[in-house]
Design brief:
Layout (H helix, E strand, L loop, with lengths): L1 H11 L4 E7 L11 H5 L4 E6 L6 H13 L3 E4 L8 H24 L7 E7 L5 H9 L4 E3 L11 E5 L2 E4 L3 E2 L7 H10 L9 H15 L16 H12 L2 E2 L3 E2 L1 H13 L15
Parallel strand pairs: 1-2, 1-4, 2-3, 4-7, 4-8
Antiparallel strand pairs: 5-6, 6-7, 9-10
Helix pairs in contact: 6-7, 7-8, 7-9, 8-9
The structure holds guanosine-5'-triphosphate.
Length: 276
């Protein structure tokens, strides 16, 4: 953690604007707890990425919540490779964030107009996908320049706008078991760190408590559902059986988690609405 933090802090010194990516399904739990401290007062644009997988109403509420805190926030879908308007909107947000900085430079007589930025976020929120989306076909990698740490690559997105090609990977916060569950369910935590059967039962239980009737694609879940029986039933219906007809719970659990992550169980935000 200390090494990661040192690396990000070093890179932050080289940039003017930070793009913080958060998973729209976890607008709170997928934020690094120390993000404000790490980024400091650098201009920032926050993306609620994977908005296509999240509950639209909750995304609106969270966007409002963070806007009210003075952040520039955009719901985003980094996979929508063809969308020029999303890219334009993001670049405009970045440029407007950088205006003050350019003013300051001008007042000091500095003619450099280049705005440099980097992407930060916890694992799996879509950092690399966003880089690919932004880079597209048009961008060119700029060579190392004197005064810039060797090995750093800057990608020119527009005339005066450059992106660091390596994102800053922040660490998620695990201490709260509920947050751990949400991070695991969305895929932000390594598969080796949890038991898929337990996780899928927790996920079914989350649906039972917070969104009965929402697991609608193939299964219905009610408030009184026994989630273990439900997983067993899913295995039976899918033919996930071991020799002797015993349900293969692990196989069923992995399939259920895959379906959830791919949005096949509906657009779901696991964090509840923001507390004002
Ligand atoms: N549905 C959807 N999937 C997305 C979106 N952005 C990224 N993904 C998917 O999310 C997964 C993780 O994306 P990455 O770009 O590898 O995430 P990352 O933050 O670079 O991950 P690490 O390398 O683990 O830090 C991939 O399967 C992407 O295709 C999005 O906006 N919508």
């Amino acid at each position: 953690m200390a090494k990661t933090r040192r690396l990000i802090t070093e890179n932050l010194k080289l940039v003017d604007v930070v793009i913080e990516i958060v998973d729209a399904r976890l607008p709170l739990s997928s934020r690094n707890p120390l993000i404000d401290e790490i980024v400091g007062d650098k201009p920032r644009v926050m993306l609620l990425n994977k908005a296509d997988l999240a509950d639209e109403q909750l995304t609106r509420l969270w966007t409002q919540y963070y806007s009210d805190q003075g952040l520039v926030v955009l719901p985003f879908n980094a996979l929508q490779g063809a969308s020029r308007s999303a890219k334009k909107q993001l670049l405009e947000a970045i440029q407007s964030q950088a205006q003050n900085l350019l003013e300051k430079r001008k007042n000091k007589g500095i003619i450099n107009k280049t705005i440099r930025m980097m992407i930060v976020g916890i694992p799996n929120v879509g950092k690399s996908t966003l880089i690919n989306f932004l880079v597209g076909k048009g961008a060119a990698e700029t060579a190392d320049r004197p005064g810039v740490t060797r090995g750093k690559q800057w990608i020119r997105l527009e005339k005066d706008l450059e992106l660091l090609d390596t994102p800053g990977i922040l660490w998620p916060k695990f201490e709260d078991p509920q947050v751990g569950f949400k991070l695991a369910a969305t895929g932000a935590i390594s598969e080796n760190a949890y038991d898929p059967v337990e996780l899928s039962l927790e996920l079914l239980n989350w649906f039972r408590l917070h969104a009965p009737g929402r697991v609608e694609t193939r299964y219905k879940i009610t408030e009184n559902e026994d989630v273990f029986l439900m997983l067993t039933d899913i295995c039976k219906r899918r033919g996930f059986l071991r020799p002797g007809g015993v349900p293969d719970l692990e196989k069923g659990a992995i399939m259920l988690l895959d379906e959830f992550r791919a949005g096949k169980l509906g657009q779901v935000t696991l964090d509840q609405e923001p507390q004002k």
